[in-house]
């Protein structure tokens, strides 16, 4: 079978196409014929590591955590009826050598989730990291809900920083579906349209307006929850618009220190929470998987045509270009066609 691999850390150029033996599913595993491999920022960051030319934990690594395809085989202990299921994949490459940028992948059956009827493989390959991260961000607050769904966030206000990104887009969709009032910040009219297509009630272009004044104008008492992609750059804004007993949830690092004015933060009992999908508690992941499945069946998440998150498709042999596109912050979701 064909697979994209790398043997050392570095830029997209370390990725190359090889022929490998077809894997066999082990006990508790399924074998999936991958149709589409999703590329996320975590994938290129793992590939680059802490510097170029460094050794890996495995002799050879297949990148990419997310994907979608069809189960074509099962290992011992797995119901044979699962053969033929359309599935979406998550954490395929976490602490493993085998991600989704290959024709066949064997992984734990719990990491191959049935794709609801009517949901496309394109959506399936776009789900895992964005939707699961979004769920954790919206439920991690100390007094927040553990599940999402209609009415769960009624009366709550949410600021989503970077609403045109994959996680931002999923967060808006999840939050609006759950009843929150959502405002998002973006950097261009094009990104504003994407955020509106996700359902954001208010969109602030921070290049054209004073974002803190705009958000405070919409929510005079501040916002209850901020889902943050750039906690360092936006630290002043976040502190200016956070409501009493509010929470800032950061799911990405912009490599800038957070500048925190401690006394005002104490006065409003502000809370900062950091989220990394891979090390979340297992119980939180299970709840997220359950809610994502319900949301997908309800048509909450959209990609591609009809005002969804834009899709950018690359053939397998152009995996380096796909990684480079994500590394250079292309707007939308990048998929590799296997």
- What is the count of β-strands? 15
- In CATH, the topology of the largest domain is named Quinone Oxidoreductase, Chain A, domain 1
Number of helices: 9
> How would you characterize the largest beta sheet?
7 strands, mixed
State the CATH architecture of the largest domain: Alpha-Beta Complex
Radius of gyration using CA atoms only: 20 Å
Number of domains: 2
Query: How would you name the CATH homologous superfamily of the largest domain?
Result: Medium-chain alcohol dehydrogenases, catalytic domain
Residues in β-strands, percent: 15-25%
Helix content: 25-40%
Give the CA-based shape.
globular
Q: Any overview of this molecule?
A:
The protein is of the alpha/beta class and 338 residues long. It has 2 domains: 2-128 and 295-337, Quinone Oxidoreductase, Chain A, domain 1 (Alpha-Beta Complex); 141-274, 3-Layer(aba) Sandwich (Rossmann fold). 28% of the residues lie in helices and 25% in strands. It has 9 helices and 15 strands. It has helices spanning 41-48, 121-139, 166-177, 189-197, 211-218, 235-241, 262-267, 282-297, 319-327; strands at 2-5, 16-19, 29-39, 66-74, 86-89, 104-108, 112-114, 157-161, 181-186, 202-205, 223-228, 242-250, 271-274, 311-315, 333-337. The strands form 3 sheets. Strands 3, 4, 5, 6, 7, 14 and 15 form a 7-stranded mixed beta sheet that branches. β14 (311-315), α9 and β15 form a beta-alpha-beta unit. α1 packs across α9 and α5 packs parallel to α6 (235-241). The longest helix is centred in the middle third of the chain and has 19 residues, at 121-139.
């Amino acid at each position: 079978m064909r697979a994209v691999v790398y043997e050392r850390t570095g830029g997209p150029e370390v990725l190359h196409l090889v022929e490998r033996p077809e894997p066999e599913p082990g006990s508790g595993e399924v074998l999936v014929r991958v149709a589409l491999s999703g590329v996320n920022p975590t994938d290129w960051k793992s590939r680059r590591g802490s510097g170029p030319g460094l050794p890996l934990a495995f002799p050879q690594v297949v990148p990419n955590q997310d994907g979608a395809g069809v189960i074509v085989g099962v290992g011992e202990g797995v119901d044979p009826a699962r053969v033929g299921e359309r599935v979406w994949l998550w954490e395929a490459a976490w602490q493993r050598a085998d991600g989704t940028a290959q024709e066949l992948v064997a992984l734990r059956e719990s990491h191959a989730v049935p794709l609801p009827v009517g949901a496309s493989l394109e959506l399936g390959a776009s789900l895992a990291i964005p939707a699961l991260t979004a769920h954790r961000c919206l439920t991690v607050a100390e007094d927040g809900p553990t599940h999402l769904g209609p009415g769960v966030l009624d009366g709550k206000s949410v600021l989503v920083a970077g609403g045109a990104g994959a996680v931002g887009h999923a967060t808006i969709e999840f939050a609006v579906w759950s009843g929150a009032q959502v405002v998002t910040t973006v950097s261009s009219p094009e990104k504003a349209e994407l955020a509106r297509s996700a359902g954001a009630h208010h969109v602030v272009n921070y290049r054209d307006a004073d974002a803190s004044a705009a958000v405070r104008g919409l929510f005079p008492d501040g916002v209850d929850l901020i889902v943050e992609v750039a906690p360092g750059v936006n630290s002043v804004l976040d502190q200016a618009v956070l409501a009493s007993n509010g929470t800032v949830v950061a799911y990405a690092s912009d490599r800038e220190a957070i500048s925190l004015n401690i006394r005002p933060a104490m006065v409003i009992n502000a809370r900062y929470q950091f989220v990394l999908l891979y090390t979340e508690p297992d119980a939180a992941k299970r709840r997220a998987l359950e809610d994502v499945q319900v949301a997908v069946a309800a048509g909450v998440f959209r990609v591609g045509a009809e005002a969804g998150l834009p899709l950018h498709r690359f053939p397998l042999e152009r995996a380096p270009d796909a990684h480079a596109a994500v590394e250079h912050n292309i707007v939308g979701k990048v998929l590799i066609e296997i």
